[in-house]
Design brief:
Layout lengths: L4 E3 L3 H5 L10 H13 L9 E7 L20 H8 L1 E8 L4 H10 L3 H4 L22 H7 L3 E7 L8 H4 L4 E5 L9 H7 L7 E5 L26 H15 L5 E6 L7 E2 L8 H11 L7 E2 L5 H24 L6 E7 L24 H4 L3 E4 L8 E8 L2 H9 L39 E6 L17 E6 L3 E7 L30 E7 L20 H18 L4
Parallel strand pairs: 2-7, 2-10, 3-12, 4-5, 4-7
Antiparallel strand pairs: 1-6, 3-11, 5-6, 8-9, 10-11, 13-14, 14-15, 15-16
Helix pairs in contact: 2-3, 2-11, 9-11, 10-11
Amino acid sequence: MGDRLVQTGVGLVDRMRRKSLNPKMPGIRHALSVLLLCWGGWAGAAPNVLLIIADDYGFDKSSLYVSGEHVPHTPVIEALAREGVTYENAWSAPSCSPTRATIITGQFGSLNGVTGVITPPLEGLVDRLDYPHYLPRELGRLGYDTGMVGKWHLTRTGDGPVLAGYDFFAGRPRSFGAGAGAEEDSIAAYWGGYLETWRCAPDCEEVTFPESPRPAPVPESLHGNYMPTWDVDRSLGWLSELADSPWFLWLAFQTPHTPLQLPPEHLVDTTLRERIEAHFGNYEAGLWVQERGDPVGGRLVFDAMVSAMDTEIGRLLEAVDLEETVVIFVGDNGTVASLADPAVVPGRRGKGSIYQGGIHVPMVIAGPGIEDRGSRSRALVHTSDIFSTVLDLAGAELTQDGVPASIPPEVVIHGRSLTATLRGEPVPGRQYLLGEGGAVAGNPWVHEQPAFGGREATAIRNNRYKLMQATVLDENRSFICIVGPQPTLDDPVPCGRDDRVKSYELYDLLNDPRESNDLLANGTDGLDPDVRAVYEELRDAVAPVRAGLL
């Protein structure tokens, strides 16, 4: 093994001082007061940047967008929103790996190559780890220390993050149950699971992946080895080692991704904990829940996982210098349909689909330099924008279209910097928002994707209307070309994505945010001229937006 790239143990966790934080207790109240008082401008040339990702956390489960008994209280995230900008029209990919790839590359999945969840045979970025423009590499050139903690899920091995440019990685290379040891990994999940730590010093050498630690056994009762707590412990440990350079930390919680497992009681909001005890009889009785067998209990446990994540975010922020740190919070895709509020996300229109329930996610940016704190932006925003935004904050020079000038012009960057929105201005160069999802060639989940019944799908919107298009499949579940040769076993891709026969749905999101009235339900014949103009405009914009021309 090369001596510069090292997998280290978890001994630091045992040396970390653990705190029992409850939203009703002084520690969390102090963290919230710090949020309210500290952000007034940073002293250095560039701020620290903390990116926090919540897993399977759609807008329907966020108190920033929806209220009601099905929405967990998140006082720390709500405090971030009061001190920053909340984005009302933020889109992600419909599943986790593609969203993460948009952030680290600034590109849509059709360009960066990550079009589906990284599970065999898909390898993600494994063949592109030498790509010179990943976010941590660009930040390293700007003098940043870079760390990644939590769920990686862009390759299936733990050396992927450091080989892609991070100085430090601690967490899970893949999602629960994705890859070798899947059954044990999924069972242990939040109470042990699959944890690794890697470091990369200058000029580190590529190495083979070492044998991984055996997952922890299934607990009989709740104990202190809770994974989100581990993630924050590791984040705090890494931050404590840094010198004076600005830092970037990508903290990717697996919470509240299934399996549904109750967190330690002290991390959960008191009122919610009482509801859990009333439903199950006692708190620990809800440790293992299948949402399809107990939908009410499943939603309660999901809410508890969100509450615990919020508490742990507060513990992290309490230790961060918020006068010099910008915090970005975002969901990686929509809520799983079986856990979503059906009044908000009907049917199978949650995670995995390109309906709003699958790709509309909560997003907040808070920190120094924000002029209109507590504002809500209606700008069209995509997770790929985080790439250019972070580099802009770090001092990178931008083009007039809001992308880093350090990226060669032949490399298409879809993401635009959002720093203008922190001043109440629109995203530069943004007319449309594009979302890619559904099944693609080679994805083993081709028949399980709910978007358009498993077909390759794309969504595009302007400030008001959203057009969804999907390939039309033949009896062999192959797409159909508009003209010319059709797919065969010998030539499965005879025509390009934009030359395939498609079906369409069109929604007026201003007046129909739940997408209940498809304006194309009766086809395109006899359409109102204004509606036809919108349909044709959005349909014709897909290819140039994907090519980076719009």
